[in-house]
Amino acid sequence: MNLTNIDIAIILCYIIVTIFLGFYVSKKASKSIKSYFLGGNEIPWYYLGLSNASGMFDISGTMWAVTAMFVYGLKSAWLPWIWPVWNQVFIMIFLAAWLRRSNAMTGAQWITYRFGTDMGAKLSHIIVTVFAVISTLGFIAYFFEGIGKFATIFFPWDLSFHLGILNISSEQAYALIIISITTLYTLKGGMYSVVGTEVIQFVIMTISCIVIGYIAFTTVTADQILAATPQGWDHLFFGKHLDLDWTGYIDHVNIKIEEDGFSLFGFLFMMMIFKGIFASLAGPVPSYDMQRVLSTKNEVEASKMSGLTIVVLSIPRYLMITGFAVLGLVYLGPELQQSGTQIDFETILPLAIQRFVPIGFKGLLLAGLLAAFMGTFAAFINAAPAYIVNDIYKKYIKPEASNKTYIRFSYISSISIVAIGLIFGFFASSINTLTLWLTSALYGGYAAANVLKWIWWRFNAYGYFGGMLAGLFAATLVPSYFPDIPDIYLFPLILLISFIGCFLGIVLGKPDDIEVLKNFYKTTKPWGFWKPVYEKLKEEDPTFSANTDFARDMMNCVIGIIWQMTFVLSPIYLIVKDYYSLAIVLFLMVVTSIILKYTWYNRLKK
C-alpha cells in the first residue's frame, strides 16, 4: 500500500518530535540513576497513569486483541484475563501502597528490604534480576514479531537483505529500524523521556481510537454483524464449550480455534480465574508497571496512578479493537472465505486499516499505533537496565562509581538487552504463541514465591530463591514436554513445581533476621500470617496495630473487577449496537464507581 504524502508527513513529524523530546530531557535525566530510572520521584501520578496506560497499549497486544474479537466475538472480552488484566485492580486496591512504602528503585532492590542481606537474600536478589531480564527479552521478541507484521502491510519498500548467512526479511528489517529509533530516544531521556513521549502517544492513540470507533459505528449495522458471524458470536456468556461454528462464514476460523485450544471455553475460564488470583496477589512483575509504582511520590499517588490506568485504557482501546473487528468481519470476511487459503489472522488489524481508514486519519492512526509500540517498548527498555545497573553493577561490581558511569553502563545494558531480544524475535513463531508463553508459563513460575513473600513471615530468602529458580526452569522446560497443550493449561503444574521449590528453600534455610522482618512488616503493613513478628512489635510499641483490611480489600477487588469489566464492555456494546446490554453495563459502572468511592478512594489517606 502506498501512503499519501500527508500520511507520511504525519508519521515523520511524530518520529521527529519523539526523538527531540528524548534528547531535550536527557540533561535532567542524567543527574542521577534515580532521576534516570524513576524520574526522581517528581513526576505527578496522573502523568504516570497516562504513561502506564500508553505502555499497555502495545501494537502486538492490540493485533492479538483484534484477532480475538474477530474470532471469538464478545467472549473475547474474557481472554485478557489470561494475563490477568485485572491484576491492575489488586495493585490499585492495596499492592501499590505496599510496594511504594519500600522506597526501592527496582523489584530486586525490594528483595533487600524484604529479606535482608545474607546469602539467601543475595541469591534471591540475583534470581529476580534474572527473571526481569528474561521477561524483557521475551517481550522484545513479542514486540519484534508484531511490529514487523504490521509495518510490511503499510510501507511499500522491500528492505530485505542478506547479512552473511542470515536472510533478513522485509518484515524483520522494518522491525529493526523502528526498534532502533525507539531505543535511541529511550537511552537519552530515561524515565522522563518515556513518560513524556507516552503521554503524547496516549493522546494520539485516544484520538485514533475515537476515529475508528466512529467509522465502525456509522458504516456497519447490527444486521450486517449478525449476517457475518455465526450464532453465539454476540453472546458474552458461555457454557462448557465455545459452540462457535464458522462453517459457511470463514471456514478457516474453525482451524484457528482448534489451534488455540480454546474450544473448552468453560475450562479455559476456570484456568484464567485460578491463575489470575495467584498472579494478581503476587503483585506486578519486575517491569515497567512496577517501575511506575516505584516512581510515584508516595503510596497514595501510587494507588491513584493504578486506578487511572484502568479508567483511561479500556474504553478507547476497545473502541478501536471492536471497530476494526466488525469492519473486518463485514467487509473482509467474504473475501477471506472466497480465497480458500490459510489466513494469517494476526494481520487483520493492518488489513482493516489499509482498507477502511481515510487519508490523513490513516497517517494519524499509524503514528498512534507506532506510538503504542514505541511507548511499550521504551518502557521495557527503561525498566530492565535498572536491574542490571542498580542491582548487579552498582551493588556487586562498582558501588562507588559516578552517576555518569552508571548511566553510561545503562546505555550498554539497554543495547545488549535489545540485541539479544531481537535474536529471540527472529525465531518466534507467532504473537499468540509468545503471548501464551509469557502470560501462562513464565508468569506461572513467578506467582508462587511472590504471593508468599507478602503474606507469610516464615517465607525466607532461600524459599524465594528456590521458588523463583524452580519456576523459571518449569516455565522453560514444561511446555517443551507438552507441545500440543496450550500454556494456560500447564499453569497449575508450573505453579506446583514453583511451590515445591519454595518449601524446599523454607525447610533447608533458616528464618530471616527478625529485625529485617520487623522493619518490613512495620513499614509495609500487609495482612497475612505475621503473628510472631506482630507480637515482637507489640512488645516494643503497644500502640502498634495490625492490618485488618483483608475482607475489605478482597471485597473491593471483586467490585473492582466488575468495575473494570464495565469499561471493557461499554465500547463493545456501543459498536455492535446492543443498547440494552450497554444500558446494563453503564448502570453497573455507576454503581461500582460509587461503592469504590466510599470503600477505597475515601480511605486512601487514612
From TrEMBL:
Ligase in keyword set: no
Localization, UniProt: Cell membrane
Membrane-spanning parts: 6-25, 45-72, 78-99, 120-144, 164-187, 199-217, 262-285, 306-332, 364-388, 409-428, 434-455, 462-482, 488-508, 557-576, 582-600
A GO-annotated cellular component: plasma membrane
Molecular-function annotations in GO: L-proline transmembrane transporter activity; proline:sodium symporter activity
Keyword Ion transport attached: yes
Protein name: Na+:solute symporter
Species per Swiss-Prot/TrEMBL record: Aquimarina algicola
Phylogenetic classification of the source organism: Bacteria, Pseudomonadati, Bacteroidota, Flavobacteriia, Flavobacteriales
